[in-house]
Amino acid sequence: MAEKILDEIQGVEDVKVDVFPSSSELLEKLHEKWNTVKAKPYPAMYSSSFGGIILDPAMMVIPIDDHMVHRGHGVFDTAIIFNACLYELDEHLERFLRSASKARITSPFPKSILRSILIQLTAASNCKKGTVRYWLSAGPGDFLLSPAGCPKSAFYAVVIEDDFHQCKEGVKVITSTIPMKSPLFATMKNVNYLPNVLAKMEAEDKGAESSIWVDEEGYIAEGPNVNVAFITHEKELVLPAFDKILSGCTALRLLELAPELVKQGRLKSVKVENVKADEAEGSAEMMYVGSILPLLPIVMWDEKPIGDGKVGELTMALSDLLWEDMIAGPEAKRIEIPYV
């Protein structure tokens, strides 16, 4: 046994670790990775630590002593870039700042400046379709638990090119066995996403797209990064109440748009209420609702079909409403980007 341990130690001693005595040598090493990438997925980043927009992907980094990195003390949000416009940016920023308040993080900038930074960042990226993701952190300072040693909070944002499209194929989901977050953390869009990651991985292990959380009382909660919605056999659109889960901006927009189908006589009603899992499993149609989907039909749950096991007509009608809103909805929902 002692000989085996000695062999392992000697093996480690044989590993040569590079030392970069200058920033220029380090930068050259960082560029080696990106020089082999034809299409760079991150065309632009903003960092309040640098005080500006970064176009070199090798420099899109954050300090290791940032409390968002080693303590998870940060919040985030995402806005869609579609048809050269930012969709529902103001709604996402409002939620972003509510999350920051719950996490006791004070933004280094007022909302108007954050908004301006994100618009300028998108313009500098020249990205016409994708997402802009942004974070507020307690900031860099030290490796302690308390953020008291952090001089100032930090704001980061990155543009990600993504060719998303309307989802017309149904997917399979499972009920997650990973414990869901408490209401405080579930209603705050924070960077502590390990439960979400494990719930997604659990679904993938079982050949499913994603999962559904059910609370201890048997009520439907949400998916790992999406809301869920159901259509009953009485043609009622039902979304679970938002008191213990994140109030999705897209889900809220769906609730505003769906009454159009009620006017047309295609839906009977639209409502938000607590939904028992056994009732939800008996729905006629089911869907995920989230920003980059914006709506994904669900046709099977825990190996049992939802309705007839096919993508529902009303699901696609609701999807059409959201896509039409993204393409040609009210100007208040779409900010045109002043690309140079």
From TrEMBL:
GO molecular function terms attached to this record: 4-amino-4-deoxychorismate lyase activity; pyridoxal phosphate binding
Transmembrane feature ranges: none
Cofactor(s) demanded: pyridoxal 5'-phosphate
Pathway assigned in UniProt: Cofactor biosynthesis; tetrahydrofolate biosynthesis; 4-aminobenzoate from chorismate: step 2/2
Alphabetical list of Pfam families matching this protein: Aminotran_4 (PF01063)
Gene3D superfamilies: 3.30.470.10, D-amino Acid Aminotransferase, subunit A, domain 2
One GO BP annotation of this record: amino acid biosynthetic process
Name assigned to this protein: aminodeoxychorismate lyase
Organism of derivation: Lithospermum erythrorhizon (Purple gromwell)
Lineage: Eukaryota, Viridiplantae, Streptophyta, Embryophyta, Tracheophyta
